[in-house]
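for the writeup, i need someone to sanity check this before i put it in the appendix. the sequnce is what the collaborator sent (i think, or maybe the updated version? ugh). structure was predicted straight from it, no edits. if anything looks off just tell me and ill rerun, i have time this weekend
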Amino acid sequence: MSGNQTTPAAMPRLKIALALLLALPSLAGAQAYPNKPLHVIVPYPAGGGLDVLARQLGERIGRRLGQSAVIDNRPGAGTIIGADAVAKSAPDGYTLMITADTTITLNQSLYSKLPYDPVKDFAPVTQLVLLNQMLIVGPNVPANSLKELIAYAKAHPGKLNYASYGSGTPPHLAMEILKNLTGSAITHVPYKGLTQAVPAVLADEVQMTFSGAASSMALIKSGRLRALAIGGRNRLVLLPEVPTFAELGYAEVPASTWFGVFAPAGTPREIVSRLHDEFKAAITDPEFAQKEVAAKGFELVANTPEEFSAVIAAEIPRNAKAVKISGARAE
């Protein structure tokens, strides 16, 4: 037998050696990660609740990884501009996106065409928090419970108005589903943002809207607004007297939004796993979780990439149904 020939018995060892050689570059890259700053795109304007949380976490992640995490606000076109930039970035773990559910589970139902595929073009890292929305009413509304509100709306069709911050936004979808479930007539009045919607309720321009706890807690505590129900799985610790829509029999009302972290699709699994571990450690730190999560009305999640993917898969058809019922369209 020639010295250059490979025996059958040696073939498995040769295949293993070749596989290890092929894997070395990717393993070396993962082990060296990160060796430069991270670029975190937030497809929302600066100053909002999501942006504030992203900046706080970016600072903590930067310290944990030994590299800075630069926050880049790319608002516009319903988060499409920022999301598209991330989708088309190199899948190396250095470009990330922190965004809300609209980008991933809602936009494809609102827009006839997107420049990215919200499922195929992103790698979920972790769902950070839930922001459960409360149905809040003004002081002149003769209802102290959701049951009383529905009864009044049905007895006085067209008399009540509600504010949203545009077609297809969470308040619009949540109220239209509630109307569909209860057969009540409440007129939609879109405003340009939440900062206009809540004052409109206070001024009795409209009688109700949906709002997160951080935006309306002080007004509720002072009695200037009343919270009748809240989205999510559990009552809010800060307002334990406010029941959830689910316990009132309206679990289908989509009164929750979430914030999550994504990388471009194709990012190595080892890097996605590392990012998940670091974001989870940062947001579940007891002091941070209390002061910046629970105290601001967020519900902590910090799930795995696989669990996050399952949440997305379940929400896409549910949101599509809500959009169809509401008649919402992109503005």
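The domain at 134-230 is CATH 3.40.190.10 (D-Maltodextrin-Binding Protein; domain 2). Residues 173 and 322 are 6 Å apart (CA to CA).
thx in advance!!
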